[in-house]
Amino acid sequence: MSFHFKDHVRSEWVDYNGHMNDAAYAAVFSHSVDKLMEYIGLDESARESYAYTIFTLETHLCYLKEARKDETIHVTVQLLDDDAKRLHVFYTMKNDAGEQLATSEQMLMGIDTDKGIPAPFPDTVANRIDSLRQEHEHLTQPKQVGRQIGIKR
Q1: Would you call 114 exposed, middle or buried from its count of C-beta atoms within 10 A (0-12, 13-18, 19+)?
Q2: What is the pTM of this model?
Q3: pLDDT reading at 1 higher than 70
């Protein structure tokens, strides 16, 4: 079963422009990281047991289409790359019609919470990441990957 996070645009997320506020997109992607952690075996009890968590080091959001109040949103993830401590992931947010609403490219880092330093993923988590890599290695890289902000001249 593939990773999938589902939510809806809450009224408190809608701004004066009548659509989901930019900060709410970031919040949804942040919640998606939490769900991905659970998906790879780092739920609350595992984080405590392993003394391990994941931090977000960098993120790049692209806003592609307005999301309206009460609209259902679906977030999927594609694992682009990984090593012993890091995940390079790409989240895609869509509506029920399958239209892309936003994307978020992120670099995530595994952290030993006792020492407060980067550390390799626990073995069971590394095995889940390996399965995710195998599931995603055939996928085409999304066009938003690696984008830079700038005015093209």
Answers
A1: exposed
A2: 0.94
A3: no
